[in-house]
Design the sequence.
């Protein structure tokens, strides 16, 4: 294992274009160490590593706000406008320290096994179901997401779809495009006075509730936990009660074993005759084959789908029968709005997500702060400053089992520990120690001891650099 260096005072020298990782990690203990490996950074902040050595891979056209934020910090950022195929993803992820994705890229255990230096994953979206969170945590990889930044965009789309379905706008527009003038009010209704049923009353559901009430709708919602209603909204006790009472039903739930096929044939037939279904959550939540059959029977008056069980990996003419057998049936249904997973795809939402997740990644890489992490204990840490230039921050992510912390403290006890904290989340524990009055010889000895310790404790993550733990 390569030994990380001590914290050395910064200089205003130019960073080489491509310093080697071995030079970076050996800098504190090597006689050939030169200060030219330090970037120019604000004087108040001290980072014990060369930011130019941090490699970041961004996929799926992540907003430029994130790219610019990370590039400004001095990281190496590689950006792609689409997702990568499994073989290419496995190769690309091998050497990067951070990967940023949206909803298409699947970071399974088999993909993560190829990641030799990965420290963090940024999910630039609401959900994290595209990542194996538990396996990532066991490998010491922290996952961040944006649980609310695009909530308003999704809520506005749903409100628009409610109105368009009630007025049959899509069918009328299509008729006009084909040259047919068909004026009439048959099956065209106002939404004022109607009941909106919201399944999942989180960030999106609650915002949607406010918008719907402001337009004269009554709101019912169903959630698996008791929640405080906003405005005049009312929580119902069961899904069936919501379905039978609502004119419009909209889904805002995560993808879990419990929510898979949450709306099947039984639930669709339970809905009021002439009602509408909207799904802007996850594609697996609705049984699309059952939806096609119930809509053809005339029981439902319309539907809007923004998500699907299978979605094309690239933009283009790929939403066809080659994707799944239900595609052709859905495309032929009347009064159905189909959108390509764009609920959160507004410029405002993507900019906010880029700033939120990009900022979380930056704080984690620079300081070890885990606030907003989806699979780690959440710990707030400030940065070290130039006044603490002889300090070292050690962070260990390890298996939460009796005796680990005692063994670590037996090693840290030989040093001047200014601050220490430990927290856990399930089987994963996170320990931080700020040590002062450290020289490069002590750093080498400290990490040598911790490396030996890591071999004796399953899933204990030994550090590669002062801020981080890793399985390598």
Sequence:
């Amino acid at each position: 294992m390569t030994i990380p260096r001590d914290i050395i005072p910064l200089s205003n020298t130019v960073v080489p274009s491509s310093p080697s990782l071995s030079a970076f990690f050996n800098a504190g203990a090597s006689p050939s160490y030169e200060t030219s490996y330090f970037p120019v950074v604000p004087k108040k902040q001290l980072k014990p590593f060369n930011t130019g050595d941090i490699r970041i891979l961004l996929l799926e056209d992540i907003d430029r706000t994130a790219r610019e934020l990370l590039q400004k910090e001095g990281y190496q950022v590689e950006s792609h406008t689409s997702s990568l195929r499994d073989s290419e993803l496995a190769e690309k992820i091998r050497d990067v320290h951070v990967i940023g994705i949206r909803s298409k890229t699947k970071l399974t255990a088999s993909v993560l096994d190829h990641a030799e230096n990965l420290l963090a994953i940024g999910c630039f979206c609401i959900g994290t179901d595209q990542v194996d969170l538990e396996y990532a945590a066991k490998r010491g990889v922290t996952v961040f997401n944006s649980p609310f930044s695009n909530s308003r965009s999704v809520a506005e789309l749903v409100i628009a779809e409610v109105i368009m379905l009630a007025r049959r706008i899509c069918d009328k527009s299509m008729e006009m495009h084909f040259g047919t003038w068909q004026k009439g009010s048959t099956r065209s209704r106002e939404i004022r006075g109607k009941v909106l049923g919201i399944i999942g009353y989180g960030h999106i559901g609650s915002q949607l509730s406010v918008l719907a009430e402001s337009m004269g709708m009554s709101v019912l919602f169903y959630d698996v936990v008791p929640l405080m209603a906003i405005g005049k909204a009312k929580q119902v006790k069961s899904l069936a009660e919501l379905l039978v009472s609502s004119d419009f039903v909209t889904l805002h739930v995560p993808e879990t074993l419990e929510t898979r096929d949450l709306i099947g044939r039984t639930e669709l037939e339970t809905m009021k005759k002439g009602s509408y279904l909207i799904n802007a959550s996850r594609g697996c939540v609705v049984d699309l084959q059952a939806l096609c059959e119930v809509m053809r029977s005339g029981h439902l008056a319309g539907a809007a789908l923004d998500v699907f069980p299978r979605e094309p990996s690239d933009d283009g003419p790929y939403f066809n029968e080659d994707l799944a057998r239900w595609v052709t049936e859905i495309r032929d249904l009347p009064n159905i709005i189909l959108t390509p997973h764009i609920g959160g795809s507004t410029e405002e939402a993507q900019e906010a997500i880029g700033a939120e997740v990009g900022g979380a990644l930056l704080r984690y890489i620079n300081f070890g702060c885990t606030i907003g992490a989806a699979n780690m204990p959440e710990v707030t840490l400030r940065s070290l400053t130039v006044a603490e230039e002889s300090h070292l921050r050690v962070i260990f992510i390890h298996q939460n089992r009796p005796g680990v912390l005692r063994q670590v403290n037996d090693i840290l006890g030989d040093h001047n520990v200014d601050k220490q904290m430990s927290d856990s989340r399930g089987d994963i524990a996170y320990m931080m120690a700020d040590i002062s009055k450290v020289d490069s010889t002590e750093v080498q000895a400290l990490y040598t001891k911790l490396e030996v310790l890591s071999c004796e404790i399953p899933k204990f993550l030994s550090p590669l650099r002062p801020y981080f733990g890793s399985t390598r």
